[in-house]
Design a protein that fits this description.
65 residues; mainly beta; binds zinc ion
């Protein structure tokens, strides 16, 4: 089962495996960090909620400073 969701910027939709639910991903279009939503049974596109951008030990932020 996959999660089909859209970034809050509306520019891009993603398909991720449902085990990714709750993890943070970065939209390559708007650079926003969002939390992968839980999978739905209806198959409709979910708008992902933007996540608080945390500075520190997040894995994705390494080497960006
Ligand atoms: Zn975006």
């Amino acid at each position: 089962m996959t999660i089909h969701f859209m970034c809050c910027c509306g520019a891009k939709t993603y398909y991720l495996p449902d085990k990714m639910a709750g993890s943070k991903v970065r939209c390559p279009t708007c650079r926003a960090i969002m939390v992968t939503p839980q999978p739905t049974n209806s198959g409709q596109v979910v708008i992902a909620a933007p996540a608080e951008e945390e500075h520190g030990d997040q894995q994705w932020s390494e080497g960006e400073y």
